[in-house]
Specification:
The chain has 404 residues and is α/β, with parallel strands linked by helices. α1 packs across α11. About 1% of the residues have low confidence. The structure holds iron/sulfur cluster.
């Protein structure tokens, strides 16, 4: 017999509703939304790699009330947002233009006051880090990836500005420590492209030292996002520096496609086998579910992606396969991603593997960012609901003196 949820419906009804929402969200992400001139004016200028500014919207009528959706502008999409006489609505184009529902673009969340503070060398915190609603602090310490200079950048990626400035380890350490000590910053995600001569280790060690000195913590809740080192003994140094978890995105599981699409990773990280060995070594050092690796979902067969996901999960490595979106200025600009059904089925299968290998919702958040859609599906299947929605993720409250 089906259980009733807090909204009076059955869990089966709620599951069906949430699945429909997730699939619709995914469809909008895959296809993007054609934004008319008036709406584009409201959205504002484009961010890097996008054709327009992303913004959340909610329906003011129809079946998806109370759910937030994102606008990823794409002028070729079968979906369109139009604003007329101050009223904005989402349509599906085709033989006939169908109204999906009236929508309201959400106002940008104001920047938390603490991000207006200055570092000791006079730089505003908000130029160093951003904070998500759940307390995740995101830092791209540079917009540089030297693979771009070498012409060896990953084919799906448009990251990398020549001679980009590098935020100093002292600035990054200071800002995260201040946010952490204020109880606002709960998990640091520290990432960038490859540095000259693979000097990432040095950088992360300096950030770790700064955070340890300022907070008194030996270990702090942070993920080091790195390329696999050729010398695997380096992995222990990230742990010793105080990082809680580590991410090394392999991007592609099929060895031959990897070699073709990730030439820089192939040439500078000891090859595909070394990358996989690095992930396994990292589990020995950091522990189960404190190591993660993403695959770009849509560049190889579902079969090889799932082989990779299962291989990693069975060895304590968190696996995900975010949906491929062709980026402007990447080698794959103008290509297409597989259909929504393909992606949704892949995410359902990954969620089933999380269950099969006994992972918990908490473990799936040890390494940032989490596995996204597959984690939501995992929650649906576990009946992990709160107030008629999926239970939102909450990081443990910062505890000074010990890692939560
Ligand atoms: S995905 Fe590849 S090209 Fe892009 S930043 Fe990372 S290493 Fe550089």
């Amino acid at each position: 017999m089906a259980n009733n949820n807090e909204n009076g419906g059955t869990n089966e009804e709620l599951k069906a509703k949430l699945y429909k929402e997730l699939e619709f969200k995914l469809d909008l992400t895959i296809h993007g939304i054609n934004v008319d001139t008036e709406t584009a004016g409201i959205l504002g200028p484009a961010s890097s790699g996008q054709r327009g500014q992303e913004r959340q919207f909610v329906f003011t009528d129809g079946e998806f009330l109370g759910v937030s959706f994102g606008v990823r502008p794409d002028q070729n999409s079968a979906y369109g947002i139009e604003t007329d006489d101050g009223k904005t609505a989402l349509y599906r184009y085709g033989k006939n233009k169908t109204l999906i529902g009236d929508v309201e673009l959400k106002k940008r969340t104001p920047r938390p006051e603490i991000l207006n503070r200055l570092t000791s060398d006079g730089v505003p915190f908000h130029t160093i880090a951003s904070i998500g609603e759940d307390g995740r602090v995101h830092v791209n310490y540079s917009q540089q990836c030297v693979l771009k200079d070498k012409g060896e950048d990953c084919y799906f990626c448009n990251y990398g500005i020549r001679n980009a400035t590098i935020k100093t380890p002292k600035q990054v350490g200071e800002v995260f420590s201040e946010l952490y000590l204020a109880g606002v910053g709960k998990h640091l995600n520290l990432t960038s492209g490859f540095m000259q001569e693979r000097r990432e280790l040095e950088y992360y060690l300096d950030v770790g030292e700064e955070i340890r000195n300022r907070t008194g913590l030996k270990e702090f809740r942070a993920t080091a996002v790195i390329g696999a080192p050729v010398d695997l003994s380096q992995i222990e140094k990230y742990k010793e520096a105080g990082f809680f978890s580590i991410r090394m995105n392999i991007e592609i599981w099929d060895k031959n496609i990897w070699k073709a699409f990730c030439p820089g990773k192939h040439n500078h990280c000891g090859g595909w086998d070394n990358w996989v060995n690095a992930l396994e070594r990292a589990v020995e050092v950091f522990g189960r579910a404190k190591v993660a690796s993403n695959i770009v979902g849509g560049l190889e067969s579902k079969k090889t992606i799932l082989e990779g996901v299962e291989y990693k999960l069975s060895r304590g490595i968190l696996a995900s396969a975010g949906s491929f979106h062709p980026m402007i200025d990447s080698y794959l600009e103008g290509h297409r991603t597989p259909e929504t059904d393909w992606h949704f089925d892949l995410q359902k299968k990954i969620a089933a593997l999380y269950r099969k290998h006994g992972y918990t919702f908490e473990q799936l958040h040890n390494v940032s960012p989490s596995g996204g859609l597959a984690v939501s599906i995992f929650q649906i299947e576990n009946g992990d609901f709160e107030d008629g929605k999926l239970r939102p993720w909450r990081y443990p409250e910062p505890k000074i003196g010990s890692i939560a």
